[in-house]
Amino acid sequence: MTLKLLPALVLAAVLAQAPALAAPGLPSTNVAWQPAAVDADVDRAFAQARAERKPVLLYWGATWCPPCNQLKATFFNRQDFAAVARNVVAVHVDGDRPGAQKLGARFKVRGYPTVILMSADGAEITRLPGEADAPQIMAALQAGLAGGRPVKAVLADARAGKALTANEWRMLAFYSWETDEAQLVRAEDRPALLAELAGRSPAGDGETTMRLWLKALAASDDGKGLKPDAALRARVQRVLADPVLARTHMDVLTNGADDMVKVLSDEDSPERAALVRQFDAVLARLQADATLSRGDRVGALIGRVKLARIGVPKAQTAPTMPEPLLRDLREMAARMDREISDGYERQSVIPALAAGL
């Protein structure tokens, strides 16, 4: 998710309603997080990891960051995460503290949130997809822990045609490519790499293979990158037509629908108008899906806003949107304001809705 500056009055209102969260704090109370602000803090954590023969889980975030607060509200507070976290040394870096930017440079971190699973000797096993559904993030973490091999080695074997385990393919499909920071691939080469992996994946059109294809499309900004063929178009249509598949790939659809439409259709064409309607219908269904977290349902609505603004110049400061969509935004904001009592969830959801207005 791309963070945007919020209107000052909206942000002030949100912070005023959650004073307990204004000061920096740990991501959750159910895990023995070790706060780190300088190299020495991290070095101590890695020394402990080596002594206890555990990997390190490093979380980089900020108290004001809506996607970070989404993680706190839906993932870090889970009991199954707390159980898994007993087998790692959990490190929290508050990106706003003095010295944190130096740590960011050390670990090639620039975006909030970034979650990295590392071996005790400092090799990156994987980066977790903070935008995915919480059970999918958990599965990605478990896949990394089960394999233990650095993702760079797994990727090299995949490209060389060597056999990978199902967990290793899942690790590649659910790697946080958006926070990779050129660790594995340059941003401009990402669509081609993801398409290559999708083509090599032995799982047919299973979850991991389909996710790789969809991520390749979503990574092709403004239609630059992957050139879709009839088979890929058919795969997308299958996802759009199947509510179960759409729910499975919710995060890719909500965050990348507009980019996928641009790749799959020409500007001002009948095909584009039809695709926008199809994607919008899917996102509207996800928006109403009570099995999703409030943050994910808001993400689906924001995805609809981005679809409605396809073709609007990026420099336009006050783009218009259809009145029904604007009404949805206002009604959801009012409902969420009434319903949400958890501070982290409030700081995730309300600013995201404000950014969509």
Describe the structure.
The chain has helices at 8-16, 39-52, 66-74, 79-85, 100-106, 134-147, 151-159, 166-173, 190-200, 207-218, 230-241, 243-248, 250-264, 270-287, 294-308, 323-339, 343-356; strands at residues 34-35, 56-61, 89-94, 114-118, 124-128. Strands 1-3-2-4-5 form a five-stranded mixed sheet, with helices on both faces. The chain has 357 residues and is of the alpha/beta class. Mean pLDDT is 89; it is low at 1-23. The chain starts with 7 loop residues before the first helix and ends with a helix.
State the helicity in percent bands.
55-70%
> How many helices does DSSP assign?
17
Task: State the order of secondary-structure elements, H for helix, E for strand.
Answer: HEHEHHEHEEHHHHHHHHHHHH
The rough form would be described as globular
Q: Please compute the radius of gyration using only Cα atoms.
A: 20 Å
Proportion of residues in β-strands: 5-15%
Give, in spatial order, the strands making up the sheet with the most strands: 1-3-2-4-5
From the N-terminal CA to the C-terminal CA, the straight-line distance is 16 Å
Described by strand count, sense and barrel closure, the largest sheet is: 5 strands, mixed
For the secondary structure, the number of strands is 5
Poorly predicted residue ranges: 1-23
Mean pLDDT: 89
Category by helix and strand content? alpha/beta
